[in-house]
Amino acid sequence: MPVDRCICHEKPFTEIKQLAIEKGYTSVEEIQNAGLSSTSCKMCEPYIRAMLKTGETSFVPGFHLK
Ligand code: FES
Q1: For the stretch 23-38, what's the b/e string if a residue is b when 16 or more beta carbons lie within 10 angstroms of its beta carbon?
Q2: For 64, which of 9, 30, 40, 46 could close a Cys bridge (C-beta 3.0–4.6 Å)?
Q3: Which atom from ligand 1 is nearest to the alpha carbon of 42?
Q4: Which of 36, 40, 57 has the most ligand 1 atoms within 8 A of CB, as the residue to mutate?
């Protein structure tokens, strides 16, 4: 099952990406400060970081640990 959302905020990465583009956010910190995602368990943080870097919104679980 791919990782494609922030579970704590109940938001898919597609929605977070769109909101980040609209607001001009380019860092995880800006997204966190705006309360869009990654403010609770933070398990999604490396995926959000990858989303901002690559534009992708669906990831293989744990890819960032390799
Ligand atoms: S999954 Fe995003 S903060 Fe928990």
Answers
A1: eebeebeebbeeebbb
A2: 46
A3: 3
A4: 40
pLDDT in tens, 19-43: 999 999 999 999 999 999 999 999 9
Question: Residue 46, exposed/middle/buried by CB under 10 A (0-12, 13-18, 19+)?
Answer: middle
**CA-45 nearest atom, ligand 1:** 2
Domains and CATH numbers, the chain: 5-55 (1.10.10)
Residues 30, 1: Cα–Cα separation, whole Å: 28
Going through the chain in order, the beta strands assigned E by DSSP cover 5-6, 11-12
- Token readout for 16 is 């977070």
pTM confidence score: 0.94
